Each structure stands twice: as structure tokens, then as C-alpha cells.
Target: Magnesium and cobalt transport protein CorA
Amino acid sequence: MPSFSPLSSFRGSGRTPQPRFIPVPTERAIVDCAVYVDGKRLPGRFTHKQALARVRDEATGFVWVGLHDPDPTQMADIAATFGLHQLAVDNALQKHQRPKLERYDDLLMLVLRTVTYVEHEMDTVSEIVETGEIVVCTGRDFVVAVRHGEHSGLAEVRKALEEDPAQLALGPGAVLHAIIDRIVGSYIEVAQSVENDIDEMEEQTFTPRSKVTVESIYQLKREVVELRRAVNPLAAPLELLSHNPDLPVPKEVRRYLRDVSERHTGVAERINDFDEALSALISAALAKVTVQQNTDMRKISAWVAIAAVPTMIAGIYGMNFEHMPELKQVWGYPAVWLVILVICTGLLITFRRNKWL
Model:
């Protein structure tokens, strides 16, 4: 976002100070910018304008620019250089979008949701899945990748592609495929971690005398819902990219995208299964809590019944009547205690035999 100076200007006495905004150069938002010709990265450092000019002057290769959380001014500079459609710029700046694919003439814009797994304790209610975004705009001779979030870096993707010149020589479409492949791979990794959590939670739920925290199951279910919202909508864009020959995607890249689409379908089905498993787990946990409450109520009722015997006898002999049986007998007091102990012991034995205590 645009930074501003701590100094402020005043527009008159007593007015609220107005912060003086200072534009941040576009290069501050650029993580990496490179020119690729015949699958190889050209040596040297380029600004985004120099890189595009180099490619178009020589009419070969393409530019790959990666940006992290650009502000509107920086994104407007990128758009002016690469000729991005205003709607693509708006999508690149907007956060928390659903995955989608848009086409503006020869420009493709793909919105991807990124996910990462957060290590946590099973008995605590905490965030389990963090999400971010990557917006990829591809043209005939450029790729502009805009990412939001701290866990969505593409340095490994770039490095892997640079080690495979034959794949990188396919052009911007190869970069688009590599980014999608990396994102879908992260979906599979996160799904495996979440599945391990569900297995552990199932074991805790069905272990006798274990303490079940229903809130933690609800939290995991909420995280699975967020994961499903990030993963499932990508199915439609992948279907278009891998099967629509009218899109500006090389035929060879479409073959790779079909494989990614199949992997995505598999992980989406797994996540749907997670949702159903957690729904069943919630029902089982609530049933276990209900059984535990019923057991506690039986114990409480048994002890109340035992305590009612001495309370009743003491209440009777606490009445202020002159003529009461055994009131003046020497053995009356110990006899009352003996009756109380016999009755309470009999109730205790009965309740234990019936497993109420």
C-alpha cells in the first residue's frame, strides 16, 4: 500500500493533520522480473519496462514479472506497460475472490486461491488453514503474477522451470501451467494434513473415557469449509483451460493441464469426503457427550437417593411432638443410626450392582 511520511500538513489552525502520501516505486512490489528466450533466462537485471522492450524489439521470448501485494499506483504502472485490461487490474488488486478465468482478447486472467496448513494442538480451537491469492495474467509475450499472502511464493516454481528449458520454451502457457500445478500440489499436501487431523480426532472421539472437545471438531469443520471454497471453484477454469482450443494456450500445455485437472478433481472429492466425515463425527461426539451426561445424572440421582434416607429420618425426629416412639429409650439414638446405615448400605450395593455408581 502507499506509504506516507510521519510529517503532516495543516490546512488551517485547529484542523486535523492530513498525512502526506508518498508514492512507492513499482520496483518495490516486484519480487522478480526476467526475460526468457528459447527457455533460458537472459543474464542481467531488468525493470519491467526494459524487459518488455527487450522482448518486443527482438520479437522473441517473453517476460515473467512477479509482484507481491502491489498498491493501486504500482498496479496501474504495470497495467500501462503491459496493456492490461482495467477489469484485470481490479481483479489483481481485489482480495478474497473465488477462483475464476477471464479472457480479454488475447489476455487471460486466472484467479487462484492458495492454501497452507497451520500446525496446531488438537485440543485447542485455532486457525488450521490459511488462504491467500495469486492472480496470473498472461499475454502473447508476458506473464504477470500478482500474489497476496505470505505463504504463496513462486520462487520454487520459477527455479524449477528454469531448470527445464524445454518446458519453459513453450512460453507463457508453460508458466501458467507450472503455477497451477504448484497450487494444486499444495491443495493435496494440505488435504493430507487435514485428513491426519480428522483421523486423530476420530480416534479421540471413539476412545472410551476420552475427553472430546466438540468445539475443536466444529473449528476443523469450519476450516474444511474454507478449504473447499478455495479448492472446488477452480474446477471450471481448469476445464476451460484444458479442453477449450479457442483459448490462447498451446496444445502441449493443454495436455499437461488435463493431468492437473484430474489431480484437482481427486483432491476436491477428498475434501468433500472430509466434510461428510466431520458431520458424522460431530453427531458421534454429541452422542458421546449425551451418554456421559446421562451417566453423571444417574450417579447424582443415586447419591441423592442415599442422602434422602438420613434426611428423612432426621426430619421426622426433628418434629417437636412429645409422644414419639423410642424418644425416651436409651437405645433409640443408636437404633436410628443403625437403621440409617443399613438402608444407605443397601441402596449403595443396589446402585453399584446396577452400575449407577
